[in-house]
Each structure stands twice: as structure tokens, then as C-alpha cells.
Amino acid sequence: MKKLIIIATAITISGMVHAATYYVSVINPVGSDSNPGTLALPWLTITKAAQSAAAGDIVYIKAGNYGHEHVVVNNSGTSSAWIRFIGYKTTPGDTGTPAWLDLNQTGGYDPPTTDPAEMPLIDGTKNGVGVGITVSSKSYVEIKNIQVSRGCLHTRGYRSVWQYNT
Question: Burial of 76 by CB count in 10 Å (0-12 exposed, 13-18 middle, 19+ buried)?
Fold first, then answer.
């Protein structure tokens, strides 16, 4: 009976989905892509996070100017274990003031003012492709509270990708 209980426990543990929490910061003086991606030792680039994140993982990205990165998400999540990339201002879970398109008096619109002090900012103009974030043929990926200036979020062949600011 003891052998049966041990085998059942081993099967249950090996079948669990591992979910990790990672951190990215360009402001933190110890940010480096050779770090483990912890709050104390964050990664420097969103690209490193997008290459590393797997189903069920959450990546918190601190406000700051991430420059001309072209972030390509490498993995898909699952319907029960999304990969989440979430920008924050000061403490994981908080949000800055999002930039919105504002209608002006003439019926047109004023482009949003981006502020890397409020939320993470990627400039998509000078990275060779004009795209800030690419999620191609990937599913169950959430991108939240990340500004992309003069570029876009490119999605192709996806089933479930969510991008929004709160």
C-alpha cells in the first residue's frame, strides 16, 4: 500500500504545470539578461523574458524606456495557463496612467503621449521592422500595460492574444 501511495504522489507532482514569476527592469542598476529574472536580480530586456517565458509564467515589467527592442514571444500558453506580460509603475500589480487617443476640437485625434515613467515603453521605429512586439502563431498570451510607440503589436496565426491597458 505504501508503494502505491508513493507512485500516485510522484505521478501527481510530475504532472503539475510549473509556473514561474519573472521580473524585468531597465531602471534597476543590476538588471542583466544573465540574471535569474527575480525581483532582486531582474532581467534587463523584455526580449529575454519573451524568449524564456513558458505556459503559466507571469513576467512583470517595470516602467522605463526599453528602447528599440523588437520583442518576439517564443512560446504559447495553454487555455488554463496563459503566459502573461504585465507592465507596472512602481510595485508589481500597480498601474500607471495609460496613454489614450484623445479626440481634439476639430474631430481628429491627438496621438497619445507616452511616458516611460508611467509604464514600460518600447519604441518600434528603429529596430529594423517597425514592430514593438510580435506574437506569431502563438496562443494564450496576455500583454498588459505596455506602451509601444511608433510601432505596433503584431499578431498573426493566433487564437488567444490579449493586449490592453488598464
Answer: buried
**Is 2 a member of any domain?**
no
Question: How far is residue 134's CA from residue 82's CA, in Å, rounded to a whole number?
Answer: 16
Summarised one tens digit per residue, pLDDT across range 64-112 is 888 878 888 999 999 999 999 999 988 887 776 655 544 445 554 445 5
State the residue range of the domain holding 112. 19-164
Among residues 46, 39, 56, 55, which one has the least CA distance to residue 148?
46
Cα 33 vs. chain centroid, distance in angstroms? 15
Question: How do strand 133-136 and strand 153-156 relate by DSSP bridges?
Answer: parallel
**CA pair distance 63, 90, nearest whole angstrom:** 7
How much is the pTM? 0.73
Kindly report the backbone phi and psi dihedral angles of residue 46, in degrees, each rounded to the nearest multiple of 5, phi listed first. -70, -30
Query: CB burial class (10 A; 0-12, 13-18, 19+) of residue 90?
Result: exposed
**Do the strands 109-110 and 102-103 form a parallel or antiparallel pair, or are they unpaired?**
antiparallel
Q: Is residue 140 a contact partner of residue 55, using CB atoms and an 8 Å limit?
A: yes
Distance CA 78, CA 10 (A): 23
Q: Give the total number of structural domains in the chain.
A: 1
